[in-house]
Specification:
CATH topology: TIM Barrel
Number of domains: 1
Order of helices and strands: HHHHEEEEHEHEHEHHHHHEHEHEHEHE
Helix content: 40-55%
Number of helices: 16
Structural class: alpha/beta
Bound molecules: flavin mononucleotide, 2-Ketohexanoic acid
Distance between the termini: 33 Å
CATH architecture: Alpha-Beta Barrel
């Protein structure tokens, strides 16, 4: 795939038509454009962060504190960014972060996102909170690489049912999210008394689950509120602890990744507990207001475990240059969060594709212009503290 062709295509569109592209190519300001299409509730849920927003801001500040140190005259005509992460082939070290309830952004929700993933070969990670089921996404997704993100419910029959359905429908790697055993303090939602999974949005991934349904006194359709409350009772799991990972190993036949690691100590524990990878992440600042920036945690975690664990990264990635910085600081691949959701909000599948193509094209240009022939050449010498 030649990512920079996307740039030429955009210029050519300007040459042959007098219409403006409907979605901006400025990934840094995409949020403003998407905001205009979302309801206040959806906007608050998607964009706002925990508490005062200090961690979300810190995520961005951390990117600004690193600058790319470009090198010249290095023969970067032929470039190859392809890589393989835990057995999954990627055209470049980019994946789509797990995001719940995507129908909040667009009626096609996860179906649009997985189709965009298939069109570009960029992996899609299916949230436990998805508004479409494993089965619907597997059918829509064709040959898109697909992983599954688990929120560990306290009801063991539902947990086992999720793991079984995910494996039966071809999700290859399990991502266990650690940082959301309780929902963080989110004033934008609290002020409106708004929580999507209590807002009767039909979160099909669990509403369709046979084990979940077996625990209901009335069918979902007869009493949707009771169904939502049933989920609200099994979702919080603050008792989750390291010793339970052995149980996942027994019931998941494939790689396991822990998402939400922010310290060297936890990265070492992940290694000791025999998982295959981690995602250095603070959940986009949505959980602990005041937590450190995800990018600030990355280099020391890579130094401690990077040679023995796959280290993925998210929280704050907005542009191709951000992607290059995180890879330079040692991430094996980055997860794109809110930006793809903005593309989804603006134009469904086409919008997600647009955002993925833009970030990949910009990444290709930034790395090439700074003297690299591929993502694998990015290293600490590629960046410098501002
Ligand atoms: C609206 C929304 C919903 C999310 N839902 C999930 C989820 O279901 N599971 C999960 O592990 N992370 C979820 N996340 C967190 C993302 O996977 C990712 O960690 C985060 O978006 C990265 O931060 P960024 O968007 O600022 O780059 C969600 C994020 C957003 C914005
Ligand atoms: C209950 C959490 C649902 C999705 C999520 O992870 C988020 O909103 O950040």
């Amino acid at each position: 795939m030649n990512f920079s062709d996307h740039q030429i295509g955009i210029y050519a569109q300007g040459m042959f038509t007098d219409t403006r592209p409907e979605i901006t190519t400025n990934l840094a300001t995409l949020e403003e454009q998407a905001a205009a299409t979302l309801t206040p509730e959806a906007l608050g849920y998607i964009v706002a962060s925990a508490g005062s927003g200090s961690t979300a801001r810190a995520n961005r500040d951390a990117f600004d504190a690193w600058r790319i140190a470009p090198r010249m005259l290095r023969s970067a005509a032929e470039r190859d960014h392809a890589t393989t992460i835990l057995g999954t082939a990627l055209p470049a070290p980019l994946m789509i972060a797990p995001v719940g309830i995507q129908t909040l952004a667009h009626p096609d929700g996860e179906l649009a996102t997985v189709r965009a993933a298939a069109a570009l070969g960029v992996p899609y990670i299916h949230s436990t909170q998805a508004s479409h089921s494993f089965e619907q996404v597997a059918e829509a997704g064709g040959d898109a690489p697909r992983w599954y993100q688990l929120y560990w419910p306290t009801d063991e029959s539902v947990l086992l049912s999720f793991l079984g359905r995910a494996q039966d429908t071809g999700f290859t790697t399990l991502v266990l999210t650690l940082d959301t055993t309780l929902l963080g303090w989110r004033p934008a939602d609290l002020d409106r008394g708004y929580l999507p999974f209590l807002a009767n949005l039909g979160i099909e991934n669990y509403l369709s689950d046979p084990a979940f349904r077996a625990g209901l006194e009335q069918p979902v359709d007869a009493n949707p509120i009771a169904a939502a409350m049933h989920w609200a009772q099994m979702f919080p799991n603050p008792g989750l602890n390291w010793s339970q990972l052995a149980f996942l190993r027994q019931h998941w036949d494939g790689p396991i990744v822990l998402k939400g690691i922010c310290t060297v100590g936890d990265a070492r524990s992940a290694l000791e507990h025999g998982v295959d990878g981690i995602v250095v992440s603070n959940h986009g600042g949505r959980q602990i207001d005041g937590a450190r920036a995800s990018l600030d945690a990355l280099p020391e975690i890579v130094d401690a475990v990077g040679d023995r664990l796959t280290v993925l990264f998210d929280s704050g990635v907005r542009t191709g240059a951000d992607m290059a910085k995180a890879l330079a600081l040692g991430a094996d691949a980055v997860l794109l969060g809110r930006p793809f959701l903005y593309g989804l909000a603006l134009a469904g599948q086409a919008g997600v594709e647009h955002v993925l193509r833009c970030i990949l094209a910009e990444f290709d240009l930034v790395t090439s212009l700074s003297g690299h022939t591929g993502a694998s050449e990015l290293g600490r010498e590629s960046v410098i503290r501002a």
